Amino acid sequence: MTLPDVPPETFSRALESLRAVRLRPEISCDEAPAPQRLAPFSVALTADVVLDDDELGSGRFVVLHNPDGHEAWDGSFRVVTFARAGLDPEMAADPLMTEVGWSWLMDCLGAHDLKVTAPSGTVTRVSSESFGAMSDRPSSAEIEIRASWTPDGDALGDHLMAWGDLLCTAAGLPPLPAGVVPLPRR
User: Fold this and answer.
1) Separation of alpha carbons 160 and 18, rounded Å
2) Residue 45, beta-bridge partner list
3) pLDDT tens readout for residues 50-60
4) pLDDT for the residue numbered 69
5) 78: exposed, middle or buried (Cβ count in 10 Å: 0-12, 13-18, 19+)
6) The pLDDT of residue 184 is above 90
7) Contact 83, 163 (CB under 8 A)
8) Is the Cβ–Cβ distance between 32 and 42 less than 8 Å?
9) pLDDT, tens digit (0-9, with 9 covering 90-100), for 62-99
């Protein structure tokens, strides 16, 4: 398959909308290599949630675009995300934690009034306890939220904002009240 050198206007608009986003100051976000075989056009971002030099969470936000559409996506764009954050081991033991993780994603998308098609994904709880020579390490737990959805249109900035909110929620940061603009950290 030969790919065109110039991205279509819809993909260029999507990139512009992503580049205009200013995430919370606790989130450091960078462009990363994007998957090449999943769609003719793609972009990927990685992010870390850091507070007082402690990494609380991390993730990846990928936009796939096939101008001809894709039957499984039910559209020409697909957003593919990953979010990981530490959990209190007691929270990880809660059998409803995976449902809570999925509700965080749906709530974040809803808070930005986003219409999405074909949302899908998994939520995984991971608990670790060390033994033997590593027994001095404390128990740890994480939540991983892997999700994808088809956005309604090419204005993807709010999708990135919703994903940033998901990262912060999973990392345990309180939501910003409506109308409050976060100030950059020094």
Assistant:
1) 7
2) 31, 61
3) 999 999 999 99
4) 87
5) buried
6) no
7) yes
8) no
9) 999 999 988 889 999 999 999 999 998 888 889 999 99
| Residue whose structure tokens are 């979010």 | 83
Q: Helix or strand or coil: residue 95?
A: coil
Q: Give the dihedral sign, CA 166/167/173/179.
A: negative
Q: What angle do CA 98, 102, 108 make, to 5 degrees?
A: 145
**pLDDT tens sequence across 20-53:** 999 999 999 999 999 888 999 999 999 999 999 9
Output DSSP code: residue 40.
Answer: S
Residues 34 and 3: beta-carbon distance below 8 Å: no
Please write the tens of the pLDDT for every residue from 143-172: 999 999 999 999 999 999 999 999 999 999
**What is the enclosing helix (H) or strand (E) of 115?**
none
- For the chain, the residue count is 186
Structure token digits, residue 81: 């995300």
Which residue in the block uniquely carries the two structure tokens 């697909």? 78
**Cα→Cα distances 104→2, 71, 162, Å:** 40, 27, 10
User: What span, in angstroms and rounded, lies between the C-alpha atoms of 149 and 115?
Assistant: 10
Helix axes 9-19, 157-170, angle to 10 degrees: 40
Please answer whether residues 68 and 82 qualify as being in contact, where contact means their C-beta atoms are separated by less than 8 angstroms.
Answer: no
